[in-house]
Design brief:
- With 392 residues, the chain is α/β, with parallel strands linked by helices.
- Helices cover 41% and strands 22% of the residues.
- The protein is globular, with a radius of gyration of 21 Å.
Length: 392
């Protein structure tokens, strides 16, 4: 794959993405409910690579010929992959779909697994954007979050990423226990000074099945209440906007033109193929969409692929109404909002005028001309409720 082509401009269309899930981590964080697994013996990367390529064949049969607009390697910790593994995966995608030069190719990386030589290998393989899981910029909270790196490791990884990749983003988690607005403002101002063009800023959520869930249920972990969380969110918007990186999605901030093309595919309700253990996909077939889901356990997925040619457990056909609901759920996360004509075509109806009027009067939503509907900053604070109201 070409590595030196300039990034193609965003067309505003949903696009077609490829998501590849590397499920392995060096350690499991106590807040994480992603499909990630720790293995104390070396992973057979050659065998997993062959399985990824096999599953690509099955996904290519479902998707048909497509032009890829973005590739995203997530996890888990994809930066535990050897550069040769990454290169083989990217070459496999290019052999099955049309991959123009200059599309966004993102890899997630953890600061604890970052090495300059490995980063240069990923860049040579075709990766042109890295997303670093920094999560905090103080050592106390990094330890609390179960991270294997410290702040020094994080800053080293940020510097390396800035030097090697054309584009770089990093994640932070806020609304941590005992975190004041002033604490977060100091940390976020520091973070923005290191950022290039993109930041992902997530509020800590307590997910069922995680160690944090048990601690929270027992009263041993207390997170900010609704008012405090809202104050932290509002401070986030003010600081990032002041630095020219406003929110283009609930938790994602970028300079104009630096938005994540791959994530925009999800939020604009485009098609994407999900490859690897626990990966999900959405693939259009005429007026229908096929929702795919693969086996989550890595070794069970590997066995399925080697026996059947893919690890898919489920292929659900989504009708137009289900697609309309998903379009609304995803699109209202975006500052650009939802294309009303597309939603009306799928749902076969207009938004409920009474519910829309109530939301408009309370300042939770707004129309952009006659073509789009979006949440206001106030509405983003109660996004789930707004979506539920409009979907009725």
């Amino acid at each position: 794959m070409l590595t030196d082509a300039p990034l193609l401009p965003d067309t505003g269309e949903p696009g077609f993405g490829l998501y590849v899930h590397w499920p392995f981590c060096a350690a499991k964080c106590p807040y994480c409910d992603f499909n990630s697994h720790v293995r104390h013996q070396p992973v057979d990367q050659a065998r997993f690579t062959a399985a990824f390529l096999q599953e690509m064949d099955a996904m290519r049969a479902l998707s048909g010929p497509k032009t890829v607009t973005s590739i995203f390697m997530g996890g888990g910790t994809p930066s535990l992959m050897e550069p040769a593994t990454v290169e083989a995966i990217l070459d496999g995608i290019a052999a099955r779909w049309h991959v123009p030069a200059g599309i966004e190719v993102t890899m997630e990386a953890n600061p604890s697994s970052v090495e300059a030589e490995r980063f240069r290998g990923y860049r040579a393989a075709g990766v042109n954007r890295v997303s670093l899981g920094v999560q905090a910029l103080n050592d106390r909270d990094l330890k609390f979050l179960g991270r294997l790196h410290d702040v020094a490791d994080a800053l080293k990884a940020i510097r390396l990423a800035r030097d090697i990749f054309p584009r770089m983003s990093f994640d932070l988690i806020y609304a941590r226990p005992n975190q004041t607005v002033e604490d977060w403002e100091r940390e976020l101002n520091e973070a923005v000074s290191y950022a290039v063009d993109h930041l992902s800023l997530y509020q800590l959520t307590i997910e069922e099945g995680t160690p944090f869930f048990g601690l929270h249920k027992a009263g041993k972990l207390v997170v900010p209440d609704g008012d405090q969380s809202a104050a932290l969110y509002e401070a986030t918007q003010e600081i990032t906007s002041g630095f020219g990186m406003p929110a283009y999605e609930v938790s994602n901030h970028a300079r104009p033109g630096a938005e994540s093309r791959h994530n925009l595919t999800y939020w604009r309700y485009g098609d994407y193929a999900g490859i690897g253990p626990g990966a999900h996909g959405r693939l259009s077939q005429r007026s229908l969409k096929i929702a795919t889901a693969t086996e989550r356990k890595p070794e069970a997925w590997l066995d399925l692929v080697e026996r059947k040619g893919h690890g898919m457990l489920d292929q659900e056909v989504l009708d137009r109404e289900e697609q309309a609901d998903e379009l609304l759920l995803m699109g209202l996360r975006l500052r650009e909002g939802v294309d009303l004509a597309r939603w009306q075509l799928l749902s076969g109806r207009d938004p409920n005028p009474e519910r829309e009027q109530i939301l408009l009067e309370h300042g939770f939503i707004e129309r952009i001309g006659n073509s789009r509907l979006r949440c206001t900053p106030k509405g983003m604070l109660i996004l789930d409720a707004v979506v539920a109201d409009l979907a009725c």
